Every structure is written in C-alpha cells, then in structure tokens.
Write a sequence for this structure.
C-alpha cells in the first residue's frame, strides 16, 4: 500500500509539473524549483564540519540561503523534497559505504525533530520533508524513515538566533530523547537536517542514538 501511495504521489507531482511548471528560485526559468544550471553554480561547502557530519552547500551563498529560508519560514514545504533528492545524489558514495554496517537491514533515516510548538506554528518539519525526498530517491528497502524515534523534549531557542558557539552547544544539550530505544540497537542510522553550523544539534542526536545502542550514526545536512 505504501509503495502504491508513493507511486500515485509521484505521478501527481509529475502531472502538476507538466501543467504548471515550477519556476527556478535562481534564474526564474520554468525548469523546476532549482534547475541544474543554478544548482551547479551554488558553491559546495569547503568549511570542515564536525566529525561524521557531511554537508553539501555553503550556507553563505545567497541562493541556497533563500531556498532554505523559503522552506522554513515561508510555507514552501515542497522545497524540502527537492533538497532531499539532491542530498541523496551528492552522498550516494557515502550511502554505499554505510551499507557495509547494515547486516542486510534498511538504513534508518531520522530527521532532526522540532518542538511541538514550532511544528504547530510552521505546519511541518522541514527536516522531515528533506528526509522524504531523500528516501524516495533510494531503491526499495534501502531506507526506513522514522519520525518518532527521536523527539525534542525541550522547546529550546532557535539555534540561528545564537551566534556564540558555546551557547549554541549549551542551548541544545539534553533537548532530545529516544522513544522505543530497542528499534535503534545495532542499527545503521542517518540523521538529516537542513543546516548545520556548529554541528551541535546533529551531534546531540547522534550521541543519544549511540547511547541507545546504534551501531553506526552519521549526519547529512543540506548546507553548512
């Protein structure tokens, strides 16, 4: 049933693109929300991220910042799935390497959760939208998306509002907890977020997962 629903959804979006082509956020041409030409022009991040966290784009670039802000703050959830597709394509080699640790089980995909208050205000979790697009790119049974294993138990200040690194790390410490920890024991996991700056959020989640018995945990972010 899930596969049928995914197929119907893809056909629906395909028909919408034919009837009402999306405008590229970069060049305004009707070649999708981010055309290949504009995507190639966005600089890849050259700054080092935290250990076991990988990011694609440089968040200082105006176009990628515009896309992520529209995803998070201007009610454009469809941008998330496109970014998830890009994330998959960029890290295909790393995903292949991770399969070594899976023992034949699907890789668990965990989007960084947001608080209930923020989810209610925004209407969706942007990291979950990215994770959906990411999973849809993979072959059947390679990934399993899990939205409710990690939950945010503390409604912290948005990390973007805090400029000091140490304050960022302190702000997020202890903010997450595991539900159904037996589901992560011995598993290989990818944590997905939109932006990583200090790496504090993803690292905090990775540490919680490891304490619950996860075998291998890595973080993927769209930008850094």
């Amino acid at each position: 049933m899930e596969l049928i629903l995914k197929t119907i959804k893809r056909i629906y979006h395909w028909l919408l693109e034919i009837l009402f082509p999306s405008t590229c956020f970069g060049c305004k041409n009707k070649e999708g929300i981010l055309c290949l030409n504009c995507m190639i022009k966005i600089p890849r991040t050259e700054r080092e991220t935290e250990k076991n966290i990988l990011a694609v784009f440089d968040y200082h670039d105006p176009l990628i910042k515009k896309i992520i802000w529209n995803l998070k703050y201007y009610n454009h959830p469809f941008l998330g799935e496109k970014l998830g597709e890009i994330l998959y394509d960029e890290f295909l080699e790393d995903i292949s390497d991770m399969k070594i640790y899976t023992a034949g089980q699907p890789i668990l995909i965990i989007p960084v959760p947001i608080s209930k208050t923020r989810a209610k205000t925004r209407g969706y979790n942007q990291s979950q939208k990215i994770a959906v697009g990411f999973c849809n790119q993979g072959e059947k049974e390679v990934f399993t998306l899990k939205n409710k294993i990690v939950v945010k138990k503390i409604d912290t200040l948005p990390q973007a509002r805090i400029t000091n690194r140490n304050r960022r790390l302190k702000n997020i410490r202890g903010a997450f907890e595991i539900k159904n920890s037996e589901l992560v024991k011995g598993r290989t996991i990818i944590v997905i977020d939109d932006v990583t700056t200090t790496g504090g959020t993803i690292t905090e989640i990775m540490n919680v997962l490891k304490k619950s018995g996860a075998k291998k945990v890595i973080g993927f972010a769209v930008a850094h």
